[in-house]
Amino acid sequence: MTIDTPDMQRIALVVEYDGHALCGWQRQNNGSSVQQHLEQALGLIEGAEVACVAAGRTDAGVHAEAMAVHADVHRSRFERSPMAYVHGVNQGLPESIRVSAVRAVAADFHARFDCRERAYRYQIWNRGTAPAIERWRHWWMPRTLDLAAMQQAAEYLKGRHDFSCFRASGCQASSPVREVRTLSIEQHGWCVSINISADAFLYHMVRNIVGSLVRVGTGKWQAAHMADLIAGRDRVVAGETAPAHGLYFTQAVYDDFSTGNFKH
User: Fold this and answer.
1) Domain spans of the chain?
2) CATH of domain 117-251
3) What are the residue ranges of helices labelled H in the chain?
């Protein structure tokens, strides 16, 4: 919906959250969601109900470093001091959710439909003993991963493909075709990071890709098996769905800005 009243302003917020104790982005009948908390915090400032729309609807347990969200607010309150507005919103949020930046956008801007590219990072704790501090930030994998083999496998996934083999049941997308633009794997200490960007993602697509890459990394599959999965289009024979708590939404890209480098 486009706003058409002069006293209202559409804004884009960059939101980060720790998804461990949250039921995901979308408001639920039972459970604590990011959308619920953000709409309540904005409503306290605006004195009315505020609807929020995000670039992506993350699942329970998934984190975000720079989720894009749009909302319509009173122009005078926002323009007086955008940074003070951010501080006011954050005062109404739990510590696990924070707005890190905000900007005015066009009245017809849409955080979801105008997004040209989305990016995620998946983190794996790759050592023999499970982590204590990082247990809700990574997927623990005790067996040493062959990163070179995983990167080789990742090359088969780049480009535009039918990703039905990584599409979870319940996916509402009209088409399984997506374009994976970047897919890289790197390690820092015990942490293995899988970074992926695409024009859009299917339901559980990133976590399903990670599950299959791990099968390559542990030697259960050859890297070239990824090409067979893509060609077969069968979710049943692909790898397991990686746990939600290792996944981070890292960036939403638009024509004139990106949440990954969106600063005040």
Assistant:
1) 8-114, 117-251
2) 3.30.70.660
3) 34-46, 75-80, 82-91, 147-155, 205-217, 225-232
Percent of the chain exceeding pLDDT 90 equals: 92
Q: Which two tokens stand for residue 61?
A: 């347990």
One-letter amino acid for residue 105 of the chain: V
The pTM is what? 0.95
Is the domain defined by 8-114 classed in CATH 3.40.50.1470?
no
Q: Is 7 a catalytic residue?
A: no
Buried b (16+ CB within 10 A) or exposed e, 212-242: bbbbbbeeebebebbeebbeebebeebbebb
How does DSSP classify residue 58? P
Q: What is the C-alpha to C-alpha distance for residues 171 and 12, in angstroms, rounded to an integer?
A: 27
Pick the catalytic residue from 7, 18, 59, 108. 59
Same fold, 8-114 and 117-251: yes
The full DSSP string for 132-151 is STTTTTSEE--SPP-HHHHH
Q: Give pLDDT tens digits for 132-162.
A: 999 999 999 999 999 999 999 999 999 999 9
Q: CA triplet 27, 198, 54: central angle to 5 degrees?
A: 20
**What is the Cα–Cα distance from 190 to 193, expressed in whole angstroms?**
10
Find all residues with CB under 8 Å of 190, minimum gap 6, and list them: 125, 126, 127, 131
